[in-house]
Amino acid sequence: MTVHPSHMDDTELLLYQFKEGNNKAFYRIYQLHYVSLWHFAHYLIDNKADAEDIVANAFFKLWKQCATFNSLDRIKPFLVVVTRNACYDYLKHNKVKKAAREELLHTSARSEEDIQANLFKGEILQKAVNEIENLPVRMRRIFKMIYMEGLSNTEIANKLNITESTVRVQKTKALQQLRASLLKRGLLTTCVAPLLAHWFL
Fold first, then answer.
1. Residue 113 and residue 201 share a domain
2. Which domain does 155 fall in, by range?
3. Alpha-carbon gap, residue 129 to 195, rounded angstroms
4. Cα 63-66-69 angle, rounded to 5 deg
5. Which candidate in 13, 35, 91, 156 could, as Cys together with 126 as Cys, close a disulfide (CB 3.0–4.6 Å)?
6. Which domain of life is it from (predicted)?
7. Residues 11-23 pLDDT 10s
8. What is the pTM (predicted TM-score) of this model?
9. Tens digits of residue pLDDT in 141-151
């Protein structure tokens, strides 16, 4: 018996909309996994721009096959496999250091552990980024302008037509709320805490 969308919970509805080719559902899935996959790809090939291209292509392949997924839990493994294979192909067809190529293409038990560790770090970073999206609208915008766009307090104040004092207050509140949320989820006690430290310095 088919369940009507109005009777679905959030997870079921997201899957239903994704399978139907809904752009907003696809973008939500993109938000859930992009940072983790980019961190993973960057670790493997050590090239930021090409890692972005590889991950973008992985999501394109996901989009083309959206109707075939019967569970949201299958999406992350699919993206990881596609991204990893693309990274290996990249290393095969680009002139990289022989030692690095052999280490990745002939994965040892140690390098496999490193890959899994970095994938885990990427997943934690993804969760941290998701927490940023839960900040109030103006607070979130100011946080992103400071830490992701690299704008100064003066530049932000001019762009948003507010005082620099307001920018500083919103920044402080954003950091306090984000820190509390990350601590509550245990993210600041993980091995990737140093990667998040620049937000709290």
1. no
2. 134-201
3. 12
4. 140
5. 35
6. Eukaryota
7. 888 888 999 989 9
8. 0.54
9. 888 888 767 78
